[in-house]
Amino acid sequence: MHDILVEEVNQYKYGHDLIDYQPYEYDYEMQINDYKFMLPKYADDVAKIGKSLHNCVASYMNKIMRKNSTIVYVTKDNNYIACIEVEKGKITQVLGDYNRQIDNQLCLTVMYWGETLRIKWCYVDEMIDKEEDLYHTPKEYWKLQNLSDKPNYFILDLESLIQIPLEERQEGFYRALGVKAYQTLRAEDFRRSHFDNSDTTKTWFQIPPIELIKDEKAYFKTASPILEIILRGANEGNGEAQWVMADIYEDFGEVVPRNVNRRDYWIKKANESGEPYFSCLEHIC
Fold first, then answer.
1. Which CATH class, in words, describes the domain spanning 2-145?
2. Can you list the positions of beta strands (E) in the chain?
């Protein structure tokens, strides 16, 4: 009864109000295989989703409108099948019809969606149990499509992303490049620790000589062509690239040693640019 009353109050309070999203949240919209991940556009869309899934998501409108929570809904064959709640770069809930747990296939797809965007899913028990299944699923299995008229760089592989000419790079490019750099570095670290020198998979990162550490430009150029692109964008005043630089100095392990002074420098530059940070950077903000 409480949830019903809250929903009715929120419906009266927000009606057909447009939901205001941060720029990075539009990256959440994509199709993975047969599943579409979408953002509700208006407040009454949330009520509609709640009625279709027989849940109380409409009672979350205060959190949504205050930007404390983001709701992503999932459809398959034009039917609502699940709601995802994201808070501070973490998936906090994933529930299907009547608040039931989602099936295994959808669960793996939601996990892959989170991995693609660097949204943490490790706070949902049923996902923790399927971590091994996710990492044993070949990348070729996942087919990603853009659902917007704007570019979604997260659906591209790293090779395609870095080949985009400078003049064609739009909002979201450096966000995606930073996330893919982080993911690629993790994968290379895993291969180095689990395989011998017979592994011939292409590597994107190397640890530069320590004497280059005081020369940021030379160090990044030696470390990776990806990092060189990000640094160039940051030095040219791109706020997204500046946030990514802050993340690199916080969380890139041996390739770029943690440096609080450089991290804080790039945070300051990004704030001065007016660029809002994005969800996967909560740990440095």
1. alpha beta
2. 30-32, 35-38, 70-76, 79-87, 90-95, 144-145
Phi, psi of 204 (to 5 degrees): -105, -15
CA distances from 201 to 70, 78, 187, 259 (A): 37, 39, 11, 29
Task: Name the token pair of 82.
Answer: 């699940």
User: Do 112 and 142 form a contact (C-beta atoms < 8 A)?
Assistant: yes
Spatial separation of the C-alpha atoms in residues 102 and 81, rounded to whole Å: 8
User: What tokens were used for 120?
Assistant: 């943490």
Reported pTM: 0.86
- Domain ranges for the chain: 2-145, 159-284
47-96 per-position pLDDT tens digit = 999 999 999 998 889 999 998 999 999 999 999 999 999 998 899 999 99
Tokens standing for residue 243? 């946030």
For residue 91, give the H/E element and its range: strand 90-95
In 10 A of CB 102, how many CB atoms?
22
Dihedral class, residue 98 (left if φ above 0, else alpha if ψ from -120 to 50, else beta): left
Q: In whole angstroms, what is the distance from residue 203 CA to residue 180 CA?
A: 13
- Token digits of residue 52: 């279709």
Mind listing the pLDDT tens digit for each residue in 262-284? 999 999 999 999 887 766 666 55
Helices 225-235 and 239-251 pack at an angle, to 10 degrees, of: 130
How many Cα atoms sit within 13 Å of 62 on the Cβ side?
7
